Fold this sequence. Notes:
CATH superfamily of the largest domain: GntR ligand-binding domain-like
Amino acid sequence: MAKSTLFSSAFSSARTTSKNAQVASDIGQRIILGQYPVETTLPREADFLAEFGVSRPVLREAIKTLESKGMVESRQQRGITVLPRDRWNFLDVDILGWIMRTHADPQMLVRLTEVRMIIEPGACMLAANCATPSGLSRIEDAWHRMNAYVNDDKLYVEADRDFHIAILMASGNEYLAAFGTVISAALMSSLQRTNPIENNQSSLPWHYSILEALRSRNGVLAARASRKQIKAALSLLQTEQD
């Protein structure tokens, strides 16, 4: 097969994948916003085809994507039904992104910070015992960047995110590391809310306490410092909600 044909085929496949993702995103966000309520049936295939202007295979792949996320289910003679929210995979990167984009859940960042309160202190306990020199180095590098960029809101928040993700990675537990990857974008959004530039300086000591405890391999102190730091962030988020 000629190179141009190979390129053309790859480009066509990429465009199809992009269309699948866009259709899934549009329908998924409508479900999240309640435009297609739980336990109701989605519009007919013909209606979606006319609206999105895509082929039937593209639409069906988009529906399969939503099925894989636990949002819809194809039922014989009933069409495609929107599933209850407790079936949705709320740690799916796309679902988190759609919720953030639509602002459908004002409590989202509070809920995720509550999850962090449960997970991160435990990750600190593990990291204190399991972190390799390179793992500790990534945490240290993130803290030094936070310190250097304390007056640059964007770069400070990026370094702050990297600090927390580096701890999850240093835990030596692949599932915790994956959790960090999943919530990365939501974590950035949360940190932007809880770390306005005037708060950057005051949050540095919290993070340094975690770093020092990890350096000394003291898991109990690291977990305690982590819990205090996240509790302060949670309090700021809850204050915003009041």
